[in-house]
Amino acid sequence: MRVFIILICALLSCISCKLEPDKKSELFHKRVFVAEGNTPIDMDVTELERHDRYSVVRLQYRSGMPTGSALTFASVTCEMGRARGAAYVTNLRDWSDGKGNWFYIIGFADSKTVNPRTYFGYHGEIVEDPAFLTVSAWKTIGNQ
Fold this sequence. Notes:
Layout lengths: L1 H18 L9 E6 L6 E10 L3 E10 L2 H18 L4 E9 L4 E9 L22 E3 L10
């Protein structure tokens, strides 16, 4: 009887582990508002889809100068890479829906020498020569 109770407890423990949401599978979201300078940066970054080595990300841009906004978005993508345990991130593709939303295919890698056409598992069109950002070189900026 004792062995039976132990087996039931172990089985229930395994089932409860499967029912709890996997923390790694939670999609990334960050609202960034940086009020420094003449034009504050205000953007919303949402991970729409997560795959093993890449994500589909939407950037809703509200305000900010182009250079500061681009650097802020780069920092946020590196934050995503850090959360996923990647050493490098790269933009494989980007496009706009014409309504103010930008979409990105962001790749995550452990090396910047990977072949972007085969490594990430993304089979759509990609940029000609994607640049890799080193995740550890970027600080987290903005608010949560």
